[in-house]
Structures are given as C-alpha cells and as structure tokens.
Design a protein that fits this description.
Distance between the termini: 50 Å
Largest sheet: 7 strands, antiparallel
CATH topology: Pnp Oxidase, Chain A
Order of helices and strands: HHHEEEEHEEHHE
Number of domains: 1
C-alpha cells in the first residue's frame, strides 16, 4: 500500500469512527465498553489490529459521580514509561467521561497485555508539551489529527505516570 493509499485509509477510518461516535453514540459506547471488558478476546484483538491499527490498553478509573471503577479501551501510546492520553473522543464535541473521571480522581490503573499497574494522572497545561504529546500520539494513531480537525476543538492531553508502590 502506498503512502497516499495508507493516508486515505487512515482518514476514512477516522471519519467513520467520528461518525459512529457522534451519530450512533449508543452502539459505539457498547462496543467500547465490551472492548474494555474483553481486551484479550479474539474479536477484540481483531478489531484492534484491523480497524484501529494501533495498540490498545485498558484504563480503569473511579467514576467521579458513582465512585465505581470504570474501564475504557484507549490507544496505547507511551512516552518513555509514561502513557499519553488525549481526550479526543473520536472528534465528538465534548470531553469524554473517562477524562473527566481522571481529572477528578487523579489516579487510575492501566492494563496492557495482562500486566496491570497504578498510575497518577497529570493534565498537560504547557502548550509545547501538549504539542509534543499530540505529535507522539499521531505517530501511533494518525487518525487523531483527523478527529481534531473534525471536532473544531483542542483536545485536552494527559500523562499517566506509574505510581511507586510501597513494599
């Protein structure tokens, strides 16, 4: 596949994800929840590899209203040992609930391929660092640029840092 064909495929996929999230929010939310609960199932792995074409992690954060653990599948993008999270929500107009929950809780758990660890959340306020994080993210999942174009808003950026666990 040529670079042009690949770029067209990335843009088409991102636009379809945007459409699914903004026009068919209910079914999209069901798929996302299922994917977060069963990340290692054959169907979830196929969806991740074929449709998203990017690695996925499971983020579990305490709900700001319910206080219950909430899990969501997110793109797995690392900067060193830190995880970069961007509240893109496939270009939907609002900030996703998982990001609002992270802001409120300040901590969460991350799971990648069966390995789970606690993290601390920091929202990136420095414009230079936010741009750097978005660039790193776009290298892993170029569709994020399409989402931001479609949304017409700047996406909040966060960094998840592994917590030191006392022994």
């Amino acid at each position: 596949m040529s670079k042009t064909e690949k770029d067209l495929w990335v843009r088409a996929r991102a636009r379809l994800n945007h459409l699914a999230t903004t026009r068919f929010g209910g079914p999209a939310a069901v798929i996302t929840r299922w994917h977060a609960r069963h990340p290692n199932s054959l169907l979830a792995r196929a969806y991740t590899r074929v449709w998203l074409s990017a690695p996925v992690l499971t983020l579990t954060v305490r709900g700001r209203k319910s206080g219950r653990p909430r899990s969501v599948a997110l793109m797995s993008v690392f900067r060193g040992d830190d995880v970069i999270v961007i509240a893109g929500n496939a270009g939907a107009p609002g900030t996703p609930a998982w990001f609002l929950n992270l802001r409120a809780a300040g901590e969460a758990d991350v799971e990648v391929r069966g390995h789970r660890w606690p993290v601390e959340f920091r929202e990136v306020s420095d414009a230079h660092e936010a741009a750097e994080c978005k660039e790193i993210f776009a290298r892993v999942y170029p569709g994020m640029r399409v989402y931001e174009e479609q949304a017409g808003r700047s996406f909040p950026v966060g960094v998840l840092t592994r917590k030191e666990v006392a022994t």
